[in-house]
Amino acid sequence: MIAPRTSVAGQFGPFLLAFGLALPLLALSGRVAPLGPESGFEIGNDFVALLGLSFAGIQLVAHRRSASLRAAWGWAALGTLLIAVEDHLEPLVAPVVPKLLEVGLSNVAWILAASLIVLAGRRYAMRRYVMIVMRLGLAITLAAVGLNFALHAFGFDETAHGMAKAEDLAELAATTTFVLGLLLTQIAPMKSYHFAPDQIGLRARRLFYDFGLETRRRYPAPQPILALPVIRHLFILAIIARFMPGSAGAVRDVYGRGVLAQLGDLLRMGFVHGVDAKSYYVHELYRPEPGLFEATITRVETKNGLNRRIQLLRAAQGGPSDMNDKLEFFRVCEEHGVATAPIMATVEDGALVWMASRDDFDRDLFVKDRRGRGGRFTFNFERAGRFLYRADDGAIVNLAEVLQTLRLSSADRRLIIQPKLRNHPLIGSLAEKSLVVFRVMTCLDSRGEPQATHGVLRLLRRFEPGWPKTPDADWGCEIDVETGAFGLMTGDAPETATRWFTDHPATGERLSGRILEGWREISEAALAAHRVFSARVLVGWDIAWTPEGPVILEGNSNPDVSYFQRVSRTPVGRSPLGPLLNVHLGALTAKLLDQTAREQRRPDADRRDAKPGPRSFVAAKLAVDRFFERGIGGRAAGTLADMRFARWRRANPGATYADFYAHRATLRLERGGAHKTLGLRHYRADPLFASVTHETAQFSNRGRRYFRWFEDRALRSDMVCVDYGCGSLRVGQHFIRHLEPGRYIGLDVVDRFFRDGLTLLGPELVAEKRPYLSAIDAASLEFAARRNPDLIYSTAVLQHVPPAELDAYFGAIVGMMGPRAVAVVNFKSADSTVRIGSSAWAHSFPKLLSSLDRVDPKLIVWHEPQPAGDGDDHAQAMLIIARAPDQLAKWSARPD
Known about the structure:
Strand order of the largest sheet: 2-1-7-3-4-5-6
Number of strands: 22
Largest sheet: 7 strands, antiparallel
Oligomer: single chain
CATH topology of the largest domain: Rossmann fold
Radius of gyration: 33 Å
Distance between the termini: 55 Å
CATH architecture of the largest domain: 3-Layer(aba) Sandwich
Low-confidence stretches: 1-11, 31-38, 602-619, 677-698
Number of helices: 29
Structural class: alpha+beta
CATH superfamily of the largest domain: Vaccinia Virus protein VP39
């Protein structure tokens, strides 16, 4: 549950009410337990704490229907109450306990109070400044605790020593800071979640922490208590103490990064970003590469909940998704023709279920947990004769003894028996006893098609007793996804982070640069398996290459992205996975922000029948908009936009104005701004928050006038139509309803533009009509061209294309046109090209015709003026573009 934000009156009203309540509470507390004569700071501290308590109590009542927020404000109320009563308890406990114990209890109370308030603030971490202020309050609290301990440990006079006054001042400052943080939860604006494409690690961490995506704590330790304030910081220090001594020296010697500099990195990354010391060394975050940390994703985010939230984006797609149950996984793969390791029997609670004949067991056997991961709890039985086996401990046993052992071992786990697979002869020299595993990462692209992004050769060193002993459990070697070439080999332990091998560490066999002949078949096997399990966004596949070909061992829907980054020495943000994962993180961001927008109201003020705001407010806003579209205001807005574009392009060389426009619009939307094409805007009373809400019924009426133009011409339901610049689908929604399933293609510069409209369409219509929606890139344009569209239309897009980029705009449209296709482009017309806003132009027909002639001189173009809309200064017009004269005639013919 995301914390709501109220109107201006709702934000400051409770605080003013809390101010009024705090005064009588302060007077009452003074009567119940009066303070000593030296109590100026204490009185101030009490008042501020009671102010916070009153505010928390009011918010607790306001959010009583939300369990999550009720808990948060309950923590805040308890924390401020502890601060308020702490000084008053001192006279009561002083006569009965030793002084140092009294000091210890006081310090524990302060730390507990601070932790509770910080926990409450975490519910509002998506708001600016909230957690900065909360962390500052925690730091001041720890300083006050330290002063208090030092004051009594050294026996200073509490009434006269300056340290005592500093302690009282620190306590007052901490309390004031915490109460300020509580107020900010209700008035602070939302953070921006727009990042550079390669800053995927920073983006992932921001989403993970700000929206509380932790579902089950797994890494670096599973105990939930380790995530609590103060305890978390102590745990970070403990991890630093565990891993730094074994790695810091080697890093200093190889990379020149001093020990103190490493310690500074670890403290900053741990306390600010939550990244542990093991990740720091495994991912070589000490390397002097700009942006390395921002581009790296760690196990802290992925293993503790981010992967799961990404996978849930595809939950509504249906289809097989369970990869944890190996029996179910085997059945699904077998049903869909995906080669996987067969299961010969299952053993559960002592019961054996045969799935193969007894004769099939006269071979090497491999047994593992039905839901196990990482090679844990396994048995190997090597054939030593007919139905005789050598167990892991070297004993010779028969089949009956094997089965009895498994029955006894299945009391608290479910086991599966499989034939032990053999390595392909071409890789047989890479391992002696263990199976060589090829790990392949696949991720769905924007079209829902899996792409192979990483490949790794994985040698299970822990299963090779004759190999050298190292801290590593596995050795890994990157495989080039395109060529199948091996890279350098390394281990998976932080202590060996600086060790890289061109040759096999145990056998000396040359690896680096060697081409894996079966790589193409291995990667294709992973892609085929992902098509079956398409309900999963991201999957890590473990594959064996046997004499019979690739065999899928298992799929992991919570894959260890860190391992791929480690062996490739390339962070996700700079790898082929980066652009794909950014699409899904964008979808997740939109979903989280949408949930926030819906929940950013007080529960008792949640009305579905919101009335439009005052006409005077709407009129004033329209007047301001009109000023910046005309005359001096328009020219000033245009100059400012050009300056912003020039500055932005310096940071994004090669980007176009369309990219800049997309960046600005996305930024506005992610901050909760209005989407002008979603329908009638309802202005809330809260000008600090997103100013609009949208209704499905109103949205369905938008764009109907444009659609009727096509409906009255040659539009048929069996046509394939491309909506170039589909935006919020205000026009596209009518095409989606009209066309047969799978025949609508919507493209725009960023997918953020069409997500809100897609939500308003409703899941039933989307599932029925199966529209294809994608951001504009080379792949999506190629896909659209391959569909051989009958109609390509672009509505209210050309007005946002600057004159210098007309050729690129028309080039993309014409590139999708087959010999029988027609393109229809709507634009604002003028006698000569003129700027009509900060990001808008009216174009002349000769200017557009000249651009089209440069793109393809064989095109046939028809210009059809349209009447200007209400309040428009510039007439609308249509360009009808065709390759065949009969198609142009069909679409240019006006209806009767």
